[in-house]
Every structure is written in C-alpha cells, then in structure tokens.
Amino acid sequence: MIKPRAALSAAVLLLALTACGGGQSAAPEPGSSASGALNPVKVSVIPILDVAPIYLGEQQGFFAAEGLKLEIVTAQGGAAIVPAVVSGQVDVGFSNFTSLILARSKGLPIKVVAPGVASTGVAGKDFGGVVVKAGSPIKSAADLAGKKVAVNTLNNINDTTVRASIRAAGGDAKNVSFTELAFPDMLAALDKGNVDAVQVVEPFLATAVKNGDRVVASNYVDTAPGLAIAGYFTSQQTAAGKADLIKRFTAAMLKSLRYATDNPDAVRQVLLKYTKIDAALTGSLTLPTFPTEVDRASLETLAKLATQDGLVESSPDLTELLP
Amino acid sequence: MSLMNAARKILLALAVPVLLVAGWWLATAGSASFFWPPLGQILTAFADTWFSARFVTDVLPSLGRLLAGYLGAVVLGVALGTAIGSSRTLRGLLEPVLEFFRAIPSPVLVPILMLFAGIGDGMKILVIVSGCVWPVLLNTVEGVRALDEVLGDTARSYRMRRHSRLIHLVLPGAGPQIAAGARQALSIGIILMVISEMFAASNGLGFTIIQFQRSFAIPQMWSGIILLGLVGIVLSMAFRAVEARLLRWYTGLRTAQREG
C-alpha cells in the first residue's frame, strides 16, 4: 500500500539527497584543468536519429580538438533530461523546442546553446509525418478531423504541429482525438485499426512506407518552412559558471552539425552504432537537416502554437531562451 | 476508559503523519528549488487541480479501471485457486507454470497485451488483472490446501453437497488467506493502475501526473502523487471494513483464543 506516511518519508529522504546533489554540483571541479587533460562535458541525449551529429563529432575528434572529453548519457525520454540539466547532473541536454518553451514558461532557467535538428522543408520527404493505412479514407491532413491520431507525447511538439498541419489544410483541428503511444508501438496499433493515423519519425516512417502505409501530411513542413525541431541546451547556472566549457561545446557541436550535413552516409553509418535501427533500413531513411543556427522564427512559431493549443498560458521570453 | 483508549489510538496513528507533514512544510517553506516547491504551494495546487472537472475526467476513470481490474482479479484468483487447491493433480500440473507466470512483471506484458486487447480501457484493466491475480490465486491455493482435513472428512461423511461444502467450508476456511492475498493485490493494483496509464493513455490519474511532470507543472505533479497516496489510504480502509465484515467469525475466534 502506498501510504502518504511512506510517501512523505521518501520525500524527506529524497529532499536530503537532492540537497546534497545540489551542493555537489555547485562545487568547482578540482584538478580538471590543472592536469592539462581534457575537460569532461556531460551531455544527456535520447539515442535517436536526431543526435547522430554528436556521435559523429565524437568519432571525428571535434570535441577533443576543443579540449573536451565528451561523456554521453542516454536517457529514455526528454522529460528526464531537463531536471538533469537544471540540477547540474549533466552540463548539456538535448530536447525538442516545444518542451524547452514549456520549461521556460514555467520559469526553469534554461538556455539553448546549439541547434540540433530541423525539418527538411520538403512535403512528403521529411523525417517525420502522419501516416495512415493504405486503404484509409483519409487523403489529406484536413481529413484527420474527428479521427484518432497517435503521437508519442501528448501536449508537445508533435500534436501541436499535427494540429497546425490540419489547420493549414483547412480542417477542424479542435476535433482530433490524440492518443499517446510510443513510436515502436505505433505501426502495430495502426495496422490493428486501434488508431486511424500515427505521427511517426524515422526510422518508423521508412518502415511504414515499406509496409505500404501512406503519408498524408508532413506536419513539420506544414507548420513552418525548415522548422527547427530540437536543440542542445544548458542551465543558466552552468552557462554562467562554466561559460568557457559551454563555448567550446557549442563550437564542437557546430563543427559536428556541419560534418553531418556534408556526410549523410557517415550519419547513416553512425546510426548503427548507437541505435538498433535495422541495417537494411538505414539507406532508405530520410535524414533531417542539421542546421548551424538556431532559427528564432521557428521557436516563435512553436511558442505561438503552444499558446494557441493551451500548453502554456503565455509565450515565454524567447530572448532569454535563445543563445 | 474505552473512549480514552480510542482517543489515544487516534493520536498515535496521527502522530507520525503530522510530524512528517510539519517536517516537510518546514523543510520546503523557503524553498526556491523548482523541483521541490514549498508544501503550501503544493496544497494550493492540490485544491485547484483536483477539486475540479479533472476529478470526473481523470480520477474516476482511473478508479473505475482499478476496481474493474481488481475485482476481476479477485474473482478469477479465488475461482482458479479453489479449483487448483482442491485437486492434487491440478496442483502438481500447474504449480510450476504458475510460478513462472507470477515471476513475469506485468509492465513488460503491456506491449503484448496491447496487441491482443488494443489500446483502450480493456488493455489497462487486463494489465491490472494480470498483476493482481497472482497473490489472490496463490494464497487461495494455500488456504484451500491447508483446510482442516477432519472438517473436510466430516463434511463428506455428512454428505454435504459439493456446492454447500464450497460455500460453508472451503471458502470461509480459506478466507483469511484469501483476504491476505487480496490485500496484497490491492496495492499492486494501484501501482499497475498508474503504470497502465503510461502506455497509450489519454486520461487517468497516472497519465495526468506524467503530463504534469512533462510540462514542468511541478506543484501539480506533487499534488497528484499525494492524491495517489490518499487513494491508497481510502482503499485500504475500505478493504479493512469489508474484511472485518466478511471475516467476523475469524477475528472473533482469534480474540477468543487470545483471551482464553
């Protein structure tokens, strides 16, 4: 039985633990620069296609060249990354921009330090999209009104952009019923008819197309041209306390993003290293763009959508969030 | 005297919770930490969050699924457990298999259950049943097996019918054990209620807490956790009331034995 007594004592215990954790992170790192060795930088990412550049950059030695020893900590979901960054357990995290706008609107002291991934901007040829079964009566985003659509996280970037896509096609976006499903479970649910449509990203998009499913909307493309989806961020504290470390991280990250843009085949290769993507599938994946600048217009669009769909009461100050 | 005793009991029961709440309040009173908001703020969020339409749209569906799953598990567990407990052959055949299935944590079954039962309420109820049934089932088997043999022989020699033997001897005899299993199952049920809502959900208490966490509504998230604890208390009190009623003979017997 979960009794509040137990919950409370656990809370008190946790409180004590985090209090210690907080103290630790505030302390300077002893000897890291004195020894002349590489400075460790801890980065928390979700092991998905979007973060291929950081793995490539590590392989190419871009981080070592900046005097950084990259330590990648993988997390299951973006939700765990923000607290880890804010508490100083990791220096940098990867997250989609809607989540960061949400966090910023609640007053969390975070700051974007590098771009991460953006839409290709080409309808039907993006790395994410809304997919239906081959025989479905749904022909366009407008037909999604009144239908059941699966997204990986409710009240986040994917449902707001699907709604934007429906509005752009002249449909009634209020009328869609979204269900939360993990990406790996989506195609089975679609196949069984549990949902009418699913919003998937690569590699599930390529798998769906291979199975004969039909892409009816490219929700990122319909939202804004070249929509920036996600990026790397740190806490204000880390940004101020380890300004130099963050500056070098950004430099190495930009080099990595550029390299990823110039070497798509290397991106496909590195995926096999840190994801469980089927090797036969990597050739047919649509890669996202890896921008080298954080696109303010995209964040403004996402903030507007978040406000419009009631995720936040009012848009946060984006200047505070942007680098 | 008994009034004094009752008052003393209540004081004792409340002392630690009150101390903990006071400790929590004091420790967080001036907290500026985002993830550890002051308790006062959490309690305000509690009222705003749960004394609203959300009670109907999220809490009631959760409790409905929990009750459906839990009752389903109890009925299934007692029925199967009685059958297995009464038959030596069945027991020999099934016991190793039961241990195997019991050892599988239900959360890992969710993706598989989703393939069979879809993503609606049925799947979530099945998740709860699949976890709650084991303590009931195994305790029922033990309870039925441990029945007094003399009583069984007596019932047989009086030619009691199978049906009345079940109602008047087997189920009451195994009752205390079944109740122990059912109590265990209740807490498992609450946990699975939350877990089942982490997959393919669009409403529910667990779902809402996770939504709050993801949207960084931290006081609201804490208030949901507190609500879960309160749900646990209320359900366990309800369970005790039902148990006291059904097992009145047993508690009476125990008291008499202790005093004798």
Automatic annotation (TrEMBL), chain A:
One of its GO terms (cellular component) is periplasmic space. Residues 40-260 form the Solute-binding protein family 3/N-terminal domain. It is found in: Periplasm. Residues 1-21 form the signal peptide. InterPro entries: Solute-binding_3/MltF_N, SsuA/THI5. It comes from the Bacteria. Pfam families: NMT1 (PF09084). The keyword Transit peptide does not apply. PROSITE patterns: PROKAR_LIPOPROTEIN. Keywords: Signal. PANTHER family: ALIPHATIC SULFONATES-BINDING PROTEIN-RELATED, TAURINE-BINDING PERIPLASMIC PROTEIN. Belongs to the bacterial solute-binding protein SsuA/TauA family. This is NitT/TauT family transport system substrate-binding protein. The lineage of its organism: Bacteria, Bacillati, Actinomycetota, Actinomycetes, Streptosporangiales.
TrEMBL record, chain B:
Belongs to the binding-protein-dependent transport system permease family. Residues 59-243 form the ABC transmembrane type-1 domain. Keywords: Cell membrane, Membrane, Transmembrane, Transmembrane helix, Transport. It is a multi-pass membrane protein. GO terms for biological process: transmembrane transport. It is found in: Cell membrane. Its main location: membrane. The lineage of its organism: Bacteria, Bacillati, Actinomycetota, Actinomycetes, Streptosporangiales. Signal peptide: none annotated. PROSITE patterns: ABC_TM1. InterPro entries: MetI-like, MetI-like_sf. The chain crosses the membrane at residues 67-85, 97-119, 188-210, 222-242. This is ABC-type nitrate/sulfonate/bicarbonate transport system, permease component. GO terms for cellular component: plasma membrane. The keyword Glycoprotein does not apply.
